[in-house]
Structures are given as C-alpha cells and as structure tokens.
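Researcher: I've been going back and forth with a colleague about how SHOCT domain-containing protein might be arranged in three dimensions. Neither of us has a model we trust, so I'd like an independent prediction. The organism is bioreactor metagenome, in case that matters for your notes. Sequence below.
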Amino acid sequence: MMFIWIIIVLLVYHMYKNNESLSINTRKQDSSMEVLKQRYVKGEINDDDYERMKKILQE
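Model: Here is an independent structure prediction for SHOCT domain-containing protein. You can compare it with whatever you and your colleague have in mind.
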C-alpha cells in the first residue's frame, strides 16, 4: 500500500515540475514579445524588422 502512495506522490511531483517549466518558457516568450512591441512603438525598428522578429518569437 505504501508503494502506491509513493508512486502517486512521484507522479504529482513530476506533473508539477513539468507544468512549472512550461510556464517559465511562456513567460520568457511573453516578455520577449513585449520588448519587441515596445521597440516597434518607440520607432527603434521598422515594420519589416518587427514582422521578422515576431515570426521568429512565435516559432
């Protein structure tokens, strides 16, 4: 019986860690997109550069 509980705890832990790493990657991509948008609004990059970089970030 104890073995089953250990398996359950390990599965929950594994699922939590995978979800955490996915959310970190999503946050990094979101912040990169925000920086790109800010640079575009400030006029630091032109339309072509914005679209090219946006496409790269969305891959």
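Researcher: What would you highlight for our discussion?
Model: I'd start with this: The CA atoms of residues 24 and 30 lie 10 Å apart. After that, consider the following. The radius of gyration is 20 Å.
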